[in-house]
Amino acid sequence: MKDLGAEHLAGHEGVQLLGLLNLYLEQEERFQPREKGLSLIEATPENDNTLCPGLRNAKVEDLRSLANFFGSCTETFVLAVNILDRFLALMKVKPKHLSCIGVCSFLLAARIVEEDCNIPSTHDVIRISQCKCTASDIKRMEKIISEKLHYELEATTALNFLHLYHTIILCHTSERKEILSLDKLEAQLKACNCRLVFSKAKPSVLALCLLNLEVETLKSVELLEILLLVKKHSKINDTEFFYWRELVSKCLAEYSSPECCKPDLKKLVWIVSRRTAQNLHNSYYSVPELPTIPEGGCFDESESEDSCEDMSCGEESLSSSPPSDQECTFFFNFKVAQTLCFPS
């Protein structure tokens, strides 16, 4: 078996890969949420006035649904979670502000990761997320988050290590490249991100644990040996590795169980006023008999445009509150809701 030295990888992008790995290892601690702050959140009991793990986890699941809705890549979601956790571990946040902070984390991450054409507008994200805050609230909160994180928003995350480790393995193995599914590994990482405890793990360790568990299921001795060399090069000690691998294994077992409500399957709840609902095209929330479409006919875009009323601003506008009796709740799948927000 090949050694994991750069001299044995010349001509196979080895020098660049190991150089990048060393850079990631140097940077990872700098972009980790403060462990003391995360521990304070973990120790907080659930009540209406303090931020507890359940509220944080629920917000991350909302971010995942938001990222899925707008077609954002995994990197955007993972970076948004990193920004969110770094800020929550640094500041004492009231639950009523969490929705606004979550939306801001998503928008900040999207502007870093996504192409300009794929960055959702603040207005659309406010409408879809139902965060009950205004564009000016978002702008102010983005400034606060950026300042508190010293404008260091582009972080080295577990996803960076996962991609790099995966590439290094493919450079060394003689087995079929499709045997180790990166999509599956990314999905498992997102499941871990939905739990606060994994924000305390080093990104390099979390990524290696995911790969190790997947390789064990494949029963590949060659891949396992390569991972051991990666672990040695990354200077990950056995105690730390086995501790987090056990937690990751439990998380994935629960995530794959039938009882688990996976974030990807979470239905989007869109709350609109009666006035807005009346302006929606009937076909969006009912199934009438459709007339034959005449040739040469065109669709009037004005029929599907929904009116958006201004939301109240100020601190109270950032808090979550149940809909009044003047509001209606509609349940749409992602495709239908996307049609509503972006009429063709």
UniProtKB/TrEMBL annotation:
Function statement: May play a role in growth regulation and in negative regulation of cell cycle progression.
Xref: PANTHER family: CYCLINS
Protein name in the entry: Cyclin-G2
Region (Disordered): 301-320
Source domain of life: Eukaryota
Organism: Pongo abelii
Cyclin-like domain segment(s): 61-147
Taxonomy of the source species: Eukaryota, Metazoa, Chordata, Craniata, Vertebrata
Family the entry assigns: Belongs to the cyclin family. Cyclin G subfamily.
Subcellular location: Cytoplasm
Alphabetical keyword list: Cell cycle, Cell division, Cyclin, Cytoplasm, Mitosis
Originating gene: CCNG2
InterPro entries: Cyclin, Cyclin-like_dom, Cyclin-like_sf, Cyclin_N
GO biological process: cell division; regulation of cell cycle
GO cellular component: a single term: cytoplasm
Stretches with biased composition (Acidic residues): 301-313
